[in-house]
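Progress narrative, Year 2. Work on Transcriptional regulator GcvA from Azospirillum isscasi advanced from sequence curation to structure prediction during this period.
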Amino acid sequence: MRRALPPLHALRAFEAAARHESFSRAADELCVTQGAVSRQIMVLEEWLGVPLFRRLTRRVELTEDGRALLPVLSESFDRIAGTAARLAARGRDLRIRVAFSFGIRWLMPRLVRFQARHPDVQVRVTVAWSTRLEFDPQEFDAAIAYCRQVPSGLSAVEVLPERLTVVCPPALAERLRTPLDLSSIPLLDGCSEGQDWRAWLAAAGLPFFEGLRQGAVFDAMDPALQAAAAGMGATVADRMLCAEDVAAGRLVLPFPEIEASSGSYWFVCPEGMQDRPAAAAFRGWLLEEAREEMVQQSAMAVVSPV
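Result:
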């Protein structure tokens, strides 16, 4: 139903003048002339058909109708301002769901660079144990998810492809001359139910052969990497997620030339959300960091320890 409302400029002029009980102070607040305030109030009085002020010699005074209208307008303008501020703040915030190991090992060390570039954007990160692409748009604005194929109905851009390879501590690497030697050490699984190992062995031209020593199973790649660095065995991991451990010498790549992939990491959000300032800024920064990561990985000279 169409509402019959007085002109907004007239309402704003009246509310300011009534609150200050002064046309001149209202003019200062609204950055207009006193005459403009007076004309707007006259427009409102004509529209309503009642006087709102008594014009005295050196001051103005609200009529009974004016006193009745003021609190209604003040409360309405306060509610509009509060709602607008909350919506504007949401436009500057980004609620993002991130796959656990990617978030802990890759995103968190870099996030400070985004905040330095965009201090007005508050990123609210929720780290998810599940790598499946599932998030409620009412709870999250976007996600960095690991998957092979992005479901329809979402805006998606690939951030980084997965590059799986075997990693182990230096002491165990001395026992690995060929991939078949993996049967002599425990194989750790980072929540892939053996899929990552099968993918890597297939890339190495081997089946998931009998005799592999099943080691500990973890609910994410990050604890599997920590266990490998502690000497518990070898695991299959994404090269970018274990880069720090490799650089520090805690882990080595016994077969750096053999890689596999089961999917990629994607930045996804509902259609239309990608154009919001916070989401667009984060996506642009994320892709810049990903390109730099790819350059570093390509330039890195990986030397086999055996």
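The chain is about 45% helix and 20% strand. The longest helix spans residues 64-92.
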